[in-house]
Amino acid sequence: MNERDLGSKIARHLEHGASQLRQGTLYRLQAARNAAMQKYHAQPAFGLAGVGLAASRFRHGQLLSARILLPLAFLLLSLSGIVYWQTVQQNNDVEEIDTHLLTGDLPINAYLDKDFDAWLKHSSL
Amino acid sequence: MERRAYKQALFAVRDEDSALDIVQDAMLKLAEKYAAKPLAQLPLLFQRILQNTIRDYYRRQKVRSLWTILFSSFSHGDDDEERDPLETLRPGDASKPTDGPLEQLEQSRVVAIIEQALESLPGRQRQAFLLRYWEDMDVAETAAVMGCSQGSVKTHCSRATHALAAILKQKGVEL
To answer: How many CB atoms lie within 10 A of CB B123?
Structure first.
């Protein structure tokens, strides 16, 4: 008898042994199965499960692949660019007003601006 | 599935309550952590979880026995109570009318001998044998569950089968 045949025959006897479990043991196994099935059905829907899966993958460092990192880097660069452009633009506006103030070459619209007028009177005091 | 899992755990830990706890833990872990996995992958995952849970049990037992040795007096071997052979004789399956009482008795005797022989095997050999022949996994699947090479699985299986054959021959059992 070869290894495979003996293994199969022993497995058949083991199967018989497993079918002869005590009623109390079977009851506890059934209860364990039911509890597991309740947990299984209580799991969130696919979307949330996907998020959970992604989070667990992130924990294991498997998320750090080019497919994820490249869009993330692009997003961060874009946000940085927008913030930088806005800052530079504000500085340019302030510099332009300062220049016009110093050269006395303000546009007529500046004198029509009530806030500017108030600031001018306040600063000249 | 849970019956075979219970028996596997019982062969490993030799305690019914602990074996039941292990199976329950393994089932709950499978349901909690791998519910999103395809159904086809669940049996393999369950086997891996079951083997890990058995391993965790051994680790806890090791720590517990260490503390027991440190803080308790020496036992007098009361824990090594011999098993009553009659305990192994389960009532027969009434759904099988072809099996007479004598056949059932002989079947139960053979099963008991096989189970005792399995318990006497080294853990890795028993694990490989059960996964390969009882769970009907191929070598690659068994290796994946055991976390070893396919060559190791073949070696473990071969040694287990030869050891079982020798024990059965010694006990006068012919399959």
So the answer is: 14
Between A and B, how many residue pairs show a Cβ–Cβ distance under 8 A?
Answer: 109
Task: Write the pLDDT tens digit of every residue in B108-163.
Answer: 889 999 999 999 999 999 999 999 999 989 999 999 999 999 999 999 999 999 99
Predicted-assembly ipTM surpassing the 0.85 threshold: no
Residue B134: CB atoms within 10 Å: 20
* pLDDT averages per 10-residue partition of chain A, 125 residues: 87 89 89 87 58 52 70 91 89 79 74 79 69
CA distance B134 to B36: 27
Q: How far is A70 from chain B (nearest CA, A)?
A: 27
Chain A residues whose C-beta is within 8 A of a chain B C-beta are 1, 3-4, 6-11, 13-22, 25-26, 28-30, 32-33, 35-40, 43, 46, 49-50, 52-53
> Which domains can be identified in chain B, with CATH numbers?
1-73 (no CATH), 99-175 (1.10.10.10)
